[in-house]
Fold:
Amino acid sequence: MQTIFDGFAGVRGRATITRDGAWYIPFYLDVGTGTSKFTWQALTRLAYAAKRVDVGLLYRYLAFYGSGNQLVQTLRFSGPSLNVTFKF
Structure:
């Protein structure tokens, strides 16, 4: 069994596009290192907030670069997703 230990630091925020705040762009970025060489993740989405539901189109990129003796050497994935959030 192999243990991977990384520390992360990140930032997230939200920029509103319209005065009423219905359209907005949230964003997120983190970076980390430790037993891996380097890892990072970034995402943003264009979203619309209604009274009971938020709908958004998101894009995410994630990269993990392990060290020479780790089971996972390199892992990268990216792509879009459609998100719906129901508010109760």
Notes: The mean pLDDT is 91. The chain is about 0% helix and 70% strand.
